[in-house]
Write a structure and sequence with these properties.
two-stranded antiparallel ribbon; 2 strands; mainly alpha; elongated; binds heme C; about 60% helix
Length: about 120
């Protein structure tokens, strides 16, 4: 009898953990490029940041293309993101999220039709 309860509570705890991580994922999935940029880039690249301030209009479209295809992984794979569980930036941001961030950055780059900060 006690054993059954123990197993049942382990199962329930497991389900709670899965449900919670699912929620976090769903939240990230629903976010658009701007929200993702704010949440996953601005945390380290806001005004006065030691890492440099970066918003979409900081760079021109070619520079963003180059950053996402050449530099991003090299310069962020060893950077720990304390705002997101202390994981590496490249582990926190999924490929789908990065696609959205990239599109937002390029759509609103300095030489785009609608230059923008991430708000
Ligand atoms: C946890 C902190 C952190 C996060 C999150 C982060 N960066 Fe960085 N970023 C850095 C650091 C550290 C550097 C290196 C600064 C240096 O070399 O002086 C850097 C460098 C850069 C550079 C300069 C070019 C380069 O690669 O060296 C750009 C552009 C950049 N980041 C954009 C972004 C974008 C866009 C995002 C979101 C997808 C992002 N960063 C997320 C910390 C972060």
């Amino acid at each position: 009898m006690h054993r059954t309860w123990k197993i049942a509570s382990i199962v329930v705890a497991g389900m709670v953990v899965i449900a919670l991580s699912g929620l976090a994922n769903a939240r990230d999935k629903k976010m658009d490029g701007q929200a993702l940029f704010k949440e996953h880039c601005k945390v380290c690249h806001g005004a006065d940041s030691d890492n440099g301030e970066y918003t979409p209009m900081t760079l021109i479209q070619d520079q963003w293309e180059e950053f996402f295809s050449d530099t991003y992984v090299d310069t962020h794979k060893d950077v720990v993101d304390t705002a997101h569980g202390g994981k590496k930036v490249t582990e926190v941001i999924t490929p789908e999220m990065l696609e959205k961030i990239k599109k937002f950055a390029i759509d609103h780059a300095a030489d785009s039709e609608h230059p923008m900060t991430c708000g």
